[in-house]
Amino acid sequence: MNHRTAFIAASVATVLLSGFAAAPADAQQARDQIRIVGSSTVFPFTTAVAEQFQRTGGFKAPIVESTGTGGGMRLFCGGVGVQHPDITNASRRMTKSEFEQCKSNGVTDIVEVKIGFDGIVLAVKKGSQKMDLTLRHVFLALARQVPVNGQLAANPYTRWNQIDASLPALEIEVIGPPPTSGTRDSFNELAMLAGCGQVAEMKTLIPDNAARGRACQAIREDGKFIEGGENDNLIVQRLATGRPGTMGIFGFSFLEENPDKIEGKAIAGIEPNPDTIADGKYPIARDMYIYVKRAHVGVIPGIREFVTEYTSARAMGDNGYLEKKGLVVLPAAEAAKVRASSLALQPLTM
Amino acid sequence: MTDMSVPAAPASRHTGPEARLRLEKRYASERRFERYGMAALSFAIAALFLLLWTILSNGATAFFQTHIRLEVHFDPATIDPDGKRDPAAFRQANWAAVARAALQEKFPEVRGRLPLRQLDALLSDGAQIELLRMVSADPGLLGQRREVWLLTSSDVDMIQKGHSARDVPEASRRVNDAQLSWLDRLAAEGRLEKRFNTRFFTAADSRQPELVGVWGGVVGSFLTLGMTLLLAFPMGVAAAIYLEEYAPKNRFTDLIEVNINNLAAVPSIVYGLLGLAVFLQFFGMPRSAPIVGGVVLALMSLPIIIIASRAALRSVPPSIREAALGIGASKMQAIFHHILPLAMPGIMTGTIIALAHALGETAPLLMIGMVAFVVDIPAGPLSPSTVLPVQIFMWADNPERGFVEKTSAAIMTLLVFLLLMNAAAIWLRKKFERRW
Questions:
Q1: Closest CA of chain B from A242, distance in Å
Q2: Which domain holds residue A88?
């Protein structure tokens, strides 16, 4: 009996000791590994740089977490010190309120690095019928409420040709990201809101700007818009095996990886490709950033070198490895500017 | 008496056509019920087979990777220009140039920047890592020529495995016509082969599908579950013994019991939030560490272990306890010498089922930073790591085609893990089971 009880007592004690005594001690320890949090859209690019950085730089590979842009900002702005992350990925710019929050927690010097663009594409199965889409069509097909005979009414359209006679008589069926996803936020803002602006009646029907903004971004829930879940690969798969008219909404890199299965729809005659996304002609595109905590440079080893690697020509440049991963790279002149300002660790002002 | 005629037997409720009809009806409903059961079972089996078939058919190819055999010249002028044979200098050498030289030797007619870049694209970055590894292990290779099997890029691999279509227009392919013709030539010479993918079982995460491995996730899962077992097993069993054998029956212990049963049903993400608030923010423990993951999963499995252990203790016949007490054993002796050993199989089965459940969890780990890209294999319970289900979740989300098969292969690995754990549970039960 004695050694049995002794054994149990000992194992409980060991566990408690190792759990609670070791942890606070560890938190005080210096960290020799960069920690990155933030957007799941930027994640595939930052991880590619992290891997390359470890392979060639002689530093430990940074740990990259996928927390979403907002979640990443909260962690990043939590304060200065080893327990807080050094870099955050963002699929949009840092907002004024986030900047203020950072400041109130002592995170004052933040370096903004624009890494490239992300396009959101409307894609269909390869070989589907031609369709001259505009953002106006997209809005009218997907909004919860649209103007009908001068009145706001639940979206009555079931086929594309009911919206515009020039479109084919295909049923409206769109698979897109759920409201929790950053891609959905961007799609709402860049496609729905912009498309709504092209429908003049919306302005007269809802004069209040804020209310109209909300109405414009409300997507129909009668089964014509199907939430495909966070996994974009599943949407691609459903397009490839589904009916020809079905449309999917996801990031540009998924279009690039599956040229044998799907094709992107042109918006107002502009095809989604790296050129049109980079020069801003393709309308559903956004900037992507990483934010670096300047106070950590020199404390956590390798941050400066990591930023150098990220902004180097072999990563971010034409034909760099990030482009192969589906990043729409910055035009050469802008890339040079970003490189110079980020290497000088120029703090962000707002 | 004899002439007391028996009145014409009143029509029995149990004979006659009506009764037969009722009986027939009861038999029919019996048969129907049996058929419902069989239908439910065959549906479950069909679903299981569909699942396994999809995973197997998608993932089986992941265990082999396409390689190209090339004659590589380990040119000292490129690899070690200083002639110092310094391993650090090897690391900095231009290995891409070594690999390209080997390719160019095979296809001397390829000229021009773009075609050469397309030729380069046949090989993976992993080829360079392999060459570096070879020279680091044996610097004597410098200056020699060797036939080496080099890893191809994922695009080439997908074409070779038939996961990407070959017979579509060039614009719809990630491998162009020139590259296909080179591949065909290599194949005709026997220089193109699918070879066993050992890397998949030794490496950790990567952004290139041809370079990924599950070992990082396996080690992370092992460390996390080890921590969970260390914490949850002794605590759970101790709590169960106290509640079952010592605790008085009153309102307070009833309340505890209700709470334990409720805790077993709390969504796992809640434990993640708890871990974030208590262990990371209050105790300042490191993010992404298996030790924190283990503690969080231990909290999650504790109620299940307590419930299973209490049931196991309760199922020990009272005669055993009474006999022990009757011959003068103390209560503690009765528990540790007689009751606990008999209850052990049940306790262990419950623990292993709870651990198998914890093995598949991702939600609570999201909050404490274990959903992360980790390139290194975790060295200990404090180093950043991820676990197998998280690895699967992240690979499933990657755009590259090559990750589809790798995701399925990782699922297979996880299933094998689960099978092993369940087999262990059955084995332990069989080994320690006592019948009376």
A1: 18
A2: 32-117+287-343
